[in-house]
Amino acid sequence: MPPERAGSMPTTSFSKGSVSDALGSQRRRKLVRALRDHSAVSLLVVFVVVGALSSDVFLTPRNLLNILWAVSVLGIVALGQTVLLVSRNFDMSVASVIGLAGIVAVLAQLAGFGLVGSIVAGLLTGVLFGALNGFLAVATGANPFLITLGTNALAYAASLALTHSRTLYTTAPAFNELGRGKFLGVVNYSVVIFVLLALVLEFVMARTVFGRSLYVTGLNAAVGRLSGLSVRNTQFAAFILCSVTAALAGVIITARTGSTVGTAGVGYDFDSIIASVLGGTSLFGGRGGALRTVVGVLVLGVLNNLLILLNVPIDSQQIAKGLVFLAVVWADSLMRHP
Amino acid sequence: VRAELVRRAFNLASGHPAFLIAAAIFAALTLATGETFLTTGNLENVARQVSLDAPVVFAETIVLIAGGIDLAVGATMATAAILAIGFQNFGAPIATLVALAFGLGVGAINGFLVTRARIIPFIATLGTMSVARGIMLTYTHQQPLSGAIDSFTLWGGGNFGPIPVPFVIALALALFLSLVLKYTRLGRNLYAIGGDREAAYLAGISVNRHLFIAFLASGFLSALSGVLLASRLNSATVQLGNDTPLLALSAALIGGASLLGGRGAIGGAFLGILALGMLGNGLDLLGVQTDYQIAIRAAILILVVGIDALAANFVKLRLARVRFVP
Asked: What pLDDT, on a 0 to 100 scale, did the predictor assign at position A313?
């Protein structure tokens, strides 16, 4: 949507018109700013309208729940990625941590642990890799993109070594229920977890000391340090949080399929960043939020759903997704450099 | 005098870590494999493999020097390989031209997105990577393609005596690009832009035009790697190029490039890819399992990146100390 130029309409009645015009232009400017700030929301509205007009099925509750179900796992990863992006870091290792966490959870089940034990084991994998990422990136001050590319390969190697490249199957029925069952018979558990996590993280980022220090760290680490914040601890914690959400996503994926795949998380590294950026989180730290990422994830989900409903072949869907991504970042850039 | 010599040797070594790393890997493998590494057949094999990846590493190096990053190199390379095989009905020259033109196209789009649309290179090339992969998937329906023209396999698979044809191509390319980067105005300007874009702009360098050329060159060189690879394999699959951004970035960084821009050299990048290529080959010879190979490569990347960052911090600290002397 092109940004509307505020207040240049010629008015016939001079005295009164100029006052109301000034008020109107102010309101319009506000609207433009709101649109600028929430371009993902406008895009989501456009997609939903297009969907409602072009398909009878789109607006049915079943389809909408389907969209939520489809994006919930990516959403969980993207929420963690958002926390990290706000502190001006990246995590490319989510791709393999997702696979590894699922494998560890299944191995725990094979070793006799129950539902809770295996989930905890999976999440601990995330803690471990988050701590490793955080240590390497914070202690050396190296570029987090490359460091986590390295740990991504480490996690992949670990999952190959643990499974000997075989597929393992889950043994706890309650665990599969987590992936396939529905809360109160209506909404999938993964959707519930996604929504709860988004609300909790939005609160944490907006209202807690840790959350606020994430933004300060991302905007200007030196200022944060001089104001007495522990920048290093904040970044370290953000790395752990991101890896744990990735591990959670891995556990859910494994519960859905009932078996492990080392490559289950391939593509989630870039997709989670794309979803965050679509929602308005900056790659340069200091800007963004959990609810913004929810919108970004929904844009991707609705787009995916539309492409399927409109019978676009699966191989071409990637082109459409890439083009939409480029269009959004271009629009964002146009608004920032008019 | 001896201290001076040691200091000089240290400076030389720290200026060329790629050479040290390559030499160390070479020596270690020669010792560890009991000379099987040193046989002519094996060295030829290594040279061929390294040469296929060399252009794409040069591509990443040029963009890094100019202060950018290109994540689309892998997708460009793979799609070019697919096109070079897919268009063989029209003859090998046409197929090659189509593949190289595709690379130029991706490079031009990246250049446009970075200079005109003012999207940062990381995001812009992430988008084109996604689109290029989509084009590849749509074109192939995820089926592998195989070639039909024998003469086409010469470029990647042929030999001049014991020397593989692609090795000659890679060496010539390295020489040409080195000369351009070192001795032409274009090359010096790329370093200037990567070092400090603002200063380069104020000095009258047309920053946008140079960045555009860097991305154009990157697209072309990535496609060239794709053509050589297709020629070597005489086939192409959609799995090609998945690890290429990681490989190209690692090799370029080992070769002295920096993510901050303004640093790097083609010779170093060539040594970087040579080191990684020898390492992969040696680990295969030693019978190391794939999972451990991946882990070793990851550890090397983390080490190189970590040491690079620590060294940069050290220099920064020393500079700061000097500055604060009254």
From this structure: 83
Q: How far is CA A102 from CA A107, A258, B23, B125, in A?
A: 9, 10, 40, 31
**B159-160 and A182-183: which strand pairing?**
unpaired
Residue B209 identity: R
Higher pLDDT, A270 or B186: B186
- Closest Cα of chain A to B97: distance in Å? 23
DSSP string, A14-37: HHHHHHHHHHHHHHHHHHHHHHHH
Residue A183's φ and ψ, nearest 5 degrees, are -70, 120
**What does the mean pLDDT of chain A come to?**
85
> Are B134 and A318 a contacting pair at CB < 8 A?
yes
Q: Report which of A251, A261, A230 is spatially closest to residue A166, judged by C-alpha positions.
A: A261
Per CB-CB distance under 8 Å, the chain A contacts of B249 are 146, 149
The answer to whether A309 and A57 are in contact (CB under 8 A) is yes
Extract the tokens encoding A150: 């390295």
> Can you list the residues of chain B whose pLDDT is less than 50?
323-326
Residue B188, burial from CB neighbour count under 10 angstroms (0-12, 13-18, 19+): middle
Closest CA to A118 of A99, A105, A101: A105
- DSSP helix/strand/coil, B325: coil
What's the confidence (pLDDT) of residue A229? 86
A98 interfacial to chain B (CB closer than 8 Å): no
- Provide, as residue numbers in chain B, all residues whose Cβ is less than 8 Å from the Cβ of A267: none
Spatial contact of B99 and B84, defined as CB atoms under 8 Å apart: yes
Q: Is A166 on the interface with B (CB under 8 A)?
A: no
ipTM above 0.85, yes or no: no
Backbone phi, psi, residue A259, to 5°: -150, 165
